[in-house]
Amino acid sequence: MLVAAALAVGVLVGVLSGLTGIGGGVLMVPFLYLLYARLAVPASDATVLAHATSLAVIVPTALRGVIGYRGLGLVRWREAMTLAAAAAVSAAFSARLAVHVPAQALRTGFGLFLVVVAIDLLRHKARPAVAPLEGRASTVYAALLGLPIGALSAFLGVGGGIVATIGMYYVLHIRFESVPATSLAVIAVTATAGCVSYLFLATTAPLPFGGVVGHVDFLHALPLAVGSVLAAPLGVRLNRRLPVATIQRLFSLLILVIGLDIVWENLLR
Question: CB 57: neighbour CB atoms within 10 A?
Fold first, then answer.
């Protein structure tokens, strides 16, 4: 039953990843919380375990999504690699702090941020066309964006795709049709950096199952990854067939639901 549930969650993650450019950690982490609670893993250990395992699944998922966009000229490689390099460094350092820092306030603030952005996107269906930043300005702003993306990736167990897409759209002014593909290129790097850091932070907690290296639970990551990697091409195909305005609205509704859920879980409950 747990394997089937993990496969199903993985499929949903893959579709959303290919369609919108998010890594899927916002779906996998809550699922892993529930799974570890059922397996009687202490909450303090389950949190970091879920974050690290989510990052491990995001890596192949994002890579499969990038492959699906190959040849379409949608990935803004200069911005993607600059942003990813800064985020990777930030994620590597933040992962070492994440095991010691309570995340409730950070989660609540992040949730409120998502709600505000979602409302703005839903209110403005079509923003005035603004030329993307180019040259030195693009590089500087992309590097600055990478710092919070990498930190959130490590602290919250997400690839940073949501923040990357928002930042590329609002700050770098990248066309929305290029945002998902570029975001996947970014989070493939940031998730790898965070995951590698967690691999070298060994857990001392006694766990009721094997297959754990450092803080990464490969036993339960496998069915999640199988489902997400197989489903990512479907998300890419949907992205290419749906109108840009429809994808933007779907993304807005997605982050609105996620933001409200995060706030509810960490502040109101």
Answer: 34
Find out whether 209 and 46 touch, Cβ atoms under 8 Å: no
Closest CA to 190 of 59, 67, 100: 59
Look up residue 72 and give its amino acid: L
Enumerate the domain spans of the chain.
2-268
The DSSP string of 194-226 is: HHHHHHTS---S--SS--EETTEEHHHHHHHHH
Give CA–CA dist 232/83, Å, rounded.
23
Token couple for 24 = 């899927």
Model confidence at 158: pLDDT above 70? no
d(CA 178, CA 208): 44
Distance CA 24, CA 63 (A): 13
120: Cβ contacts below 8 Å, ≥ 6 apart:
none
Residues belonging to the chain:
269
> What is the model's pLDDT at position 207?
74
Question: What tokens were used for 160?
Answer: 């940073």
pLDDT in tens, 159-210: 577 888 888 888 888 888 888 999 999 888 888 888 888 888 777 667 777 7
Closest CA to 184 of 27, 24, 9, 11: 24
Q: CA–CA separation, 68 vs 233, rounded Å?
A: 6
Q: How far apart are CA 34 and CA 30, in angstroms?
A: 6
Name residue 175's amino acid: R
Amino acid at 143: A
Rounded Cα gap, residues 61 and 188, in angstroms: 8
How far out from the chain centre does Cα 48 lie? 16
Contact between 125 and 246 (Cβ < 8 Å): no
